[in-house]
# Entry
Amino acid sequence: MNDSAEILADRLNNEPPIFRGLSNSELGMILKVGALFWVPTCLIVATILGKTMMGMGAAMVMLLITILVSG
# Structure
């Protein structure tokens, strides 16, 4: 009886999954790291191609794909 109470208490203290098995802090970390990578990368590529504003859109799409794949 005492063992199950300890297991239940540990499980209740964990962060619940909110999106595709990711907790809130994990989702925030993936969002920050993905944005730090994709925004400059897409802006550089789009600027080279002459479509600077298209780079922001591409960065947001790539960030969404990163979150979906990571989950």
User: Anything to note?
Assistant: The chain is about 80% helix and 0% strand. The longest helix spans residues 24-49.
